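Quick look at the format.
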Amino acid sequence: MVVDDHPMWREGVARDLQERGFEIVATAGDAASAVRIAKAVRPNVVLMDLNLGELSGVDATLMITSELPNTRVLVLSASGEHDDVLQAVKAGASGYLVKSASSEELVEAVTRTAAGDAVFTAGLAGLVLGEYRRMAAAPDDSEEKPQLTDRETEVLRLVAKGLTARQIANRLVISHRTVENHVQSTLRKLQLHNRVELARYAIEHGLDSEPEAEK
């Protein structure tokens, strides 16, 4: 589903994605329509603009992800401002792409979002990770954190950076199946449901250091 307040842009993106093999189940030009239509058609992925009028894309993202847990939202915005990115992620967006991205980058981002990955335009992931690292540095001992193994933590960091399971396997020189086992084990320990929630957990707890730096 494609949501954008500019008809030519909205229809152009929808047409391009359809030509690339994606099924476009709906389009919408404002936040209220986006939420209403999304509830009706239940898309796998919503490609969401932020500037939609009285209600923003952040508002629509929050309502859609709250009511449709199996629908993932990928923001496609002209803005790369830090605050816009953070607000979108906090509202439940699975990723954030700027409109200057190429068609190939958009296709890859939609594909990865549908597969459950967290996807960000180069540079934006670092902004989000850095902000949540500062938030996580604030004292908060109210909850005991689950104990993860060193390897699980290593895999979790790479998930937070947006790497696919195959890329993680290549980076750590382990099998794809081993990566999946670590991911599933970590999901169980943290009582999470998918990779997007896993990436958010990692971001919120500041797990953004390169594994190589710890060796």
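Next, a different chain entirely:
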Amino acid sequence: MRDILEDLEAGKLLSDPDPVRRAQIQMKTPLPKRFYKAVSVVPMENGFAVHLDGRSVRTPGKAVMVLPTEKAATLVADEFSAQSEVIDPVTMPVMRLVNTAIDGVASDPQAVLEDVLRFASSDLLCYRADGPQGLVDRQNELWDPVLDWARSRLGARFNLAEGVIHVEQPREAIAVLGAHLGQRSEPMRLAAIHVMTALTGSALLALAVDFGELDGEEAWAAGHVDEDWQIEHWGQDAEAEARRSARRRDMMAAVSLLEALQG
């Protein structure tokens, strides 16, 4: 299922999941020209559709793209409106996420839920550096409040470890997260949680955003403490910066969709 999700999240119109490699390929492969003039959001019996010149947008799987709220549909419509002479799916992360939800997650939400729980069993927040002290302090500052929240609000207590040696998490904690995720099985909501989990390495950060405990920027910062530390001390090359920018864009798209699904 994770392979399927990664393929769908990349989008069938995308040539490679790596943003730098994708850009290199797309310099050689012409993007489809924009073929429409008007973009609109149209109420449907079961939600809101995005229309291009009066015709419904369909997913790569040929399903009509119907979103549960007008705000969510507007996010996709805005991405279509922003296209100029060509349609570049790289710049349409919400559309790609919605495609993932409709064509992939909706067919087997339990598999996606279980994938999120696999992340939780080795959650980023549970693996602490043993030095330098500045990094240790920053991890504690950004991660401890989330673990405290998970314990007090969700009833899930996690074990911590230094370094990368695997630490077994209590089955009760994973079961509690599973119960909360089970209440979030709507395909688009679950797809957004999955993307945030995969991009941060933390199911706890994704759930904290879903519950409103963290905003997207806070979750991004918490999920990239180690990377930010390395950048501050050693710098970053252009390709790494491009990859990070693409990941951040997809993260914020997931956060925006999650917020829009609430009406």
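The beta strands are 39-44, 47-52, 55-56, 66-67, 127-128, 161-162.

See the schema section for token definitions.
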